[in-house]
Write a structure and sequence with these properties.
The chain is mainly β. It contains 2 helices and 24 strands. A 4-stranded antiparallel β-sheet has the order 1-24-23-22, with no helix packed on it. The protein has a 4-stranded antiparallel β-sheet with strand order 2-3-4-5, with no helix packed on it.
Length: 367
């Protein structure tokens, strides 16, 4: 081949590369069908699937919705009164694995008022579009006087115990390091409200599972391995993804990759003995919210990967996981736009995503 032809081939390659990339991106997008299942929701915070495929959706002002398979939305009566201000309100909803026989669900919400509020968890029976036999299982101690950093994410472990993520209340960050307070912690209880017997601090802090957290708004259990994943908001920078290990101190506010909103240092340290390092972190902040481990048939190549919303970036991200580490991050569904608040994977591998703007998206694979 002459030098001239070599040059022409190189030029042609550089001309075609963007076109080929665009074709590849379009082909990737065609592998998924993104549908809006609902819109006009009022500050939706969480979504959960019932055994028959119907959905439950929480709205922060205090409404619990039932969405039937034909798309009809109906309010469920009997929801407890919530403290709806700033970051407070009705938060997570979780369906009992034995719902088909016991009709039980779990709710978390901000309870109280501006002077004294806390994250609270209850169980209830869903019967005829109404919650009955509501039982308070956990009320975080102490109360606080700030409508921020409630945490509020729920997850069930394989042994049937219940996890709750709790923020440190924003102005109470030092309490995240104290085992005498439940702020800035992940708590673990039995589903009747009693502390789990084998929690790591049975005498001093019987409900505490891990500590040193800022505001965890993502909590998910891998149904295949049992691994518990959690992400939490940093201040300016320093959002973290962590693997939850009982008894572990995750460092806030003694160590952090972020700085305060004023620009001042929260801490001069990014690591310290006895404090866990995050699996990954984000600087600047993406403001992660909602977390799901992908296990399903719709996107078989994603087994064990993580899906999370980003409030600041206004995207749904996929974290490519290998050997418990993050090896890549992508935005697989650019059609999903907005402050992605919650992400769930249904039993058949369908992905659900909620946005603060009031939309519920469904994503299915196309083969």
């Amino acid at each position: 081949m002459t030098c001239r032809r070599v040059v022409q081939s190189i030029v042609l390659l550089f001309v075609l590369l963007p076109v080929l990339s665009q074709v590849e991106a379009q082909a990737g997008a065609a592998d998924a069908e993104v549908t809006v299942l609902a819109e006009g929701l009022n500050q939706p915070w969480s979504v959960a699937e019932l055994p028959n495929g119907d959905l439950l959706i929480t709205e922060k002002p205090g409404r619990l919705l039932h969405r039937s398979a034909d798309g009809k939305l109906a309010s469920i009566a009997g929801v407890p009164e919530v403290f709806h201000a700033s970051q407070g309100g009705l938060l997570d909803v979780l369906v009992d694995p034995d719902f088909a026989s016991n009709q039980r669900i779990f709710l978390s919400w901000a309870d109280g008022n501006m002077a004294a509020n806390r994250t609270t968890v209850a169980s209830a029976i869903l019967r005829d579009a109404q919650l009955v036999d509501l039982e308070i299982l956990l009320a975080v101690s102490p109360v606080k006087a700030k409508a921020a950093h409630f945490g509020g994410k729920l997850a069930l472990l394989p042994d049937g115990t219940l996890l709750l993520s709790v923020g440190e209340g924003f102005e109470y960050r030092e309490l995240a390091q104290s085992l005498d307070a439940e702020l800035g912690k992940i708590l673990r209880i039995q589903t009747d409200g009693r502390p789990a017997a084998d929690n790591p601090f049975p005498e001093q802090a019987p409900r505490v599972y891990t500590y040193g957290h800022r505001n965890p708004q993502g909590l998910a259990v891998d149904p295949e391995t049992g691994t518990v994943w959690m992400h939490e908001h940093g201040p300016r920078g320093g959002d973290e993804l962590n693997r939850v290990i009982p008894g572990t101190n995750y460092g806030w506010p003694a160590i952090t990759y972020g700085v305060d909103y004023s620009g001042q240092l929260v801490s001069p340290f990014r690591e310290a003995p006895g404090m866990a390092q995050p699996v990954t972190w984000w600087v600047p902040s993406i403001a992660p919210s909602g977390l799901a481990v992908y296990r399903g048939e719709q996107f078989p190549e994603w087994q064990g990967d993580l899906l999370l919303g980003a409030l600041v970036d206004r995207k749904l991200y996929r974290l490519d996981m290998e050997g418990g580490e993050v090896i890549g991050q992508s935005e697989p569904f650019p059609e999903i736009s907005g402050r992605v608040r919650d992400v769930r994977v249904t039993r058949d591998g369908t992905i659900l995503a909620l946005t603060d703007e009031g939309k519920l998206y469904r994503v299915r694979g196309v083969r």
